[in-house]
Amino acid sequence: MSHLTLTDRFSIDSGLNSNKSKKEIAISLGKDSSTIGKVINLHTFNVAPPTAGMVLGLEKCAHLPECKKM
Fold this sequence. Notes:
This protein has helices at residues 6-17, 22-29, 33-43, 64-69; strands spanning 54-55, 58-59. The chain is mainly alpha-helical.
């Protein structure tokens, strides 16, 4: 994997926010699309929204009042 500058990483971020493909981002940076894909996979993560069974990110539990005190 070739090294990317901070400016390159910002360009990747703005490209993703603009719904550009990895190939389009790679062409604009003059890099291989596999390099862009690796950077995206290494530095992104999904945050799942809380489900209906959760309160403030905590699962509903009969012992929740005791847990909050700890």
